[in-house]
Design a protein that fits this description.
five-stranded mixed sheet, NADH Oxidase, 11 strands
């Protein structure tokens, strides 16, 4: 019989020797699983390796809402609607942004292996044609395994003008506007909307049920699913679920979370908002590609970042927030804060075999 450690190793495409051999009976630890999915990119098997790097992309609630298929020199990314979040994302906006993030990772990874990747939107899918080209390594591709959303307080240091220029440049995408704010008054204005949105979400029973459904309170829970929001990855302690769930109503409160968000934003070097010219799936995917490049560029520059999307997730608040930014009728799609801060445990990803279909 194959033990759990061997099973996970096989699913991740590793030999049993790579994780200690069959003599080791204990299950793979959280750190081992997180590290295994982030080993350096290999040239073969090409499609599996490109998918492995693609799924290291940012995605809402770490639901990993994607399905990949490969045929010849073509890889397609389709939505996995079974992993949608109807409470926080009723129109699947975040889902398609997540697909764009994955597509950007795949494009960058393919380039390092000597493949030019050309993504085309085909209905709900992103179809990526691969054509041989000279290998082109990049700082953004190298940052893919290291990138993480760091939901922690930063150290308050400002970012130098050249760093801000590189961050803004990374967001450039046709039909997508990036609004980068470093002035304290502007960040305070965004903070007000974040707190108002967070309070509204925490009063929303459907939102809270959905959030708790994707929380993984300890390593055992996280390893059982290889997805979801791992508590220590957000700076919270690892606790047995039987203890953590009843304690949530005492410690996970609107006032407590608002205090945390205020401190996080005050400690940030800046905030960036991405807004597409139109609100439809192709433009949401474009936002995702710009969003992923921002996160990778921040990582390459030694910065940390995280999402503070409450102002765009609460429908009644969204138009007011967009108006405050001078966007008129356009929708603000994504809100991120950035700065200098600590490393936290990285989130898990399901192995490529679980997200690839023939």
């Amino acid at each position: 019989m194959v033990d759990r450690r061997q099973f996970i190793a096989a699913a991740l495409g590793l030999s049993t020797a790579a994780v200690g051999g069959p003599a080791v009976a204990a299950a793979m630890t959280y750190d081992e699983a997180a590290t295994s999915s982030r080993i350096p990119l290999q040239a073969v098997p090409r499609d599996r390796e490109l998918v492995r790097f693609a799924i290291l992309a940012a995605n809402s609630h770490n639901t990993q809402p994607w399905i990949f298929s490969a045929r010849g020199n073509e890889i397609a990314i389709a939505p996995d609607f079974a992993r949608r979040c109807p409470a926080v994302d009723p129109d699947d906006h975040h889902l398609f942004v997540s697909l764009g993030c994955a597509a950007e990772n795949l494009v960058l990874a393919a380039s390092t292996l000597g493949w030019r990747a050309d993504p085309v939107i085909d209905g709900d899918r992103i179809v990526i044609a691969l054509e041989q080209a000279p290998p082109a390594a990049s700082a953004l591709a190298a940052a893919i395994p290291a990138r993480q959303c760091t939901r922690a307080t930063f150290d308050g240091r400002p970012a130098a003008p050249e760093i801000l220029r590189q961050l803004e440049s990374a967001c450039r995408e046709p039909d997508v506007t990036a609004i980068l704010m470093t002035e304290r008054t502007a960040i305070a204005g965004v903070t007000d909307y974040v707190l108002e949105g967070n309070s509204a979400q925490m009063r929303d029973k459907a939102f809270m049920r959905e959030l708790v459904n994707w929380l993984r309170f300890n390593e055992t829970e996280a390893l059982a699913t290889m997805d979801g929001l791992f508590s220590p990855a957000s700076g919270n302690p690892s606790l047995p679920s039987w203890l953590a769930r009843p304690l949530m109503k005492f410690f996970f409160t609107a006032s407590g979370e608002n205090s945390k968000y205020r401190e996080q934003l005050t400690s940030s070097a800046g905030v960036v908002v991405l807004a597409a010219d139109r609100s439809d799936k192709p433009h949401w995917i474009a936002v995702g590609r710009a969003c992923q490049r921002f996160g990778l560029q921040a990582t390459a520059l030694g910065l940390r970042y995280s999402f503070v999307n409450q102002p765009v997730e609460v429908a009644t608040l969204r138009p007011q927030f967009a108006s405050s930014l001078g966007l008129g009728e356009r929708r603000a799609d994504i809100v991120m804060r950035f700065g200098y801060g600590p490393d936290l445990p990285k989130s898990l990803r399901r192995p490529p075999e679980l997200v690839m279909r023939s």
